[in-house]
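It is worth pausing here to work through a concrete case rather than discussing structure prediction in the abstract. The textbook approach is simple: state the sequence, then state the predicted structure, then interpret. We follow exactly that order.
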Amino acid sequence: MLIERIEKKNKQIEYQFTAHIGFVDNDMVLFSQYNFAINIIIKFLKEESFGIDVVSHPVLYMMRHSLELGYKANFEYLKKYSNLETPPKVAKSHKLNILQSHLKEHFDKLSFTLNFDNKINDEFKKLFVSTGTLIKYLGSGEASAFRYTRDFNENSIFEKKEKRDIGNIKELYDNAVTMLSYTADLIAPYTDYYDLMNSQTDNN
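Step two, the predicted structure:
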């Protein structure tokens, strides 16, 4: 078992390892932290030539859970423009396919209402399809996948011979991160105009 101790020899190290957890106050920030942690681990494995098997389940779990956070953060932001409320069953869901579908509902409503051009629709579609493939690898509905070795019925979640190509999954995950991180930026020219028109209406 690898143990990496933190020896607080000076104030710099003490400051480095003091976690200001109260500043993480929304899902998008937490989503970003999970993504950062995943990339730190991947970078370390490459530099030290360690096989992914030493951390495969935690990495895949972090990918899966971070997507859930990213979806729900987007729902909260996009509802201002789509006027779509997230149903309680969706808000509480851990099923990535359900969350993915609800994100598309928001986007499709916005695309119709704000008249997105084809370039934006095509860019979103490309990332959306890629993320759908990722969800198949991560398990669309199994919240316990990669978090435990057995499901709630005490059955093994994975067969002994099952494998995952983390290189391929990481590429798909990066696309998903792009979709969930930058959808707001992608549609900003339209939502900014929407905000401007609303502010002028309020001032009249």
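Step three, interpretation. Helices lie at 11-16, 27-48, 56-82, 88-91, 96-114, 118-138, 166-186, 188-203. The chain has a mean pLDDT of 90.
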